[in-house]
Each structure stands twice: as structure tokens, then as C-alpha cells.
Amino acid sequence: MATQVRGAARKAQLLDQLVELLLAEGFAHLTLDELATRLRCSKSTLYGLAASKEQLVRAATVHFFRGATERVEERLAGASGARDRIRTYLEAVGEQLRPASTQFMEDLAANAAAREVYEQNTRYAAGRVQDLITEGVRAGEFRDVHAAFVAEVTASTMVRIQRRQVAETTGLGDAQAYEELAALVTHGLAI
């Protein structure tokens, strides 16, 4: 049992280190040999996490977004009032993306497996935004809007952020784009 706990802790630590490396530098240019060297482990240790580089990148991406989602929800738990909750949520999403380098985001957009993880996370976040809007309308804190429509527009923007289209057309990084989206949505919903 103690060996399993140590193994799980080592795996989580290694995934954390891998995520940090990938966020800082991207991943398309890195080989498994380079990753093993940089993480100070063997290739067989990496193969213990995933069977290929693509699966390893996907596992790291899942690990990153799982942790990011937990941290966003923790921040949201401290917010009160519909406007503060939706602003906090979108800004927290942006904060979680702040450590991601441009290279990471470009590699993510170009890699089908990692992009799918980001898209799934974006769909979850869009659904969460719709829930927050619906709660605000019901509480009388937001104008009576069609929550699904506003969430759809928000989700479309989130997808454009994820696909690097907002960065290309505005020069905004993902974190900055989420801050601007938070301001737009909260001001647009105000009574």
C-alpha cells in the first residue's frame, strides 16, 4: 500500500513537472529523450505515464486542465452575487491560462489530442457560464436575457480564444482575452 501511495505521488509530481515544462516551452519540438533528460527520469518512467509522446502530452494536458478547473471552482466558491461570480469565473479561467506560453498554445492548437482536451474543457466552461447567467437572471441580478444565447456567444469567443484566432486578430494573450470577455459579459448583463 505504501509503495502504491509513493508511486501515485511520484506520478503526480512528474505530471506537475511535465506540465510546467510544456506550459513554458510548448511540446512539438521536444522528443521523449529530451523530456526524460529535462525531467531527470528515464524514458521507461515516462512510458509508465503514457505509451507515446502524443499520449504523454494528452495526459499532461488533462492534468493541467483538471487542476485548473479545480482552482477556478475554488475561486468561484469565494465569490458572491451573480456579477461577481461570472467575472470571477472568467477571470479565473484567464489566470489559469496565464502561465501558458504562446508556444504551448500554438502547439496545443496544432495537436489533435491536446486540442480535443482544450475543446472539451472549453465546452465545460461554456456550460458553467450558462449556469452562472441563468442563476443571475433568476436572482434578478442580471437583465432578463436568453442565457443559452449569451452562453453560446461566450462559448464562441472562448473557442476563438482557444484556437488562437483572438490572439491573431487582437494581439491579446489568452489570459487577457478572458479578462476582456469577463468585462464584456458582466457589463452586458447588468441591469
UniProtKB/TrEMBL annotation:
Molecular function terms, GO-annotated: DNA-binding transcription factor activity; transcription cis-regulatory region binding
A Pfam family matched in the record: TetR_N
InterPro entries listed in its UniProt record: Homeodomain-like_sf, HTH-type_TetR-like_transc_reg, HTH_TetR, Tet_transcr_reg_TetR-rel_C_sf
Keywords: DNA-binding, Transcription, Transcription regulation
Span of domain HTH tetR-type: 8-68
Signal sequence residues: none
Record-annotated DNA-binding residue ranges: 31-50
Protein name from the UniProt record: Regulatory protein, tetR family
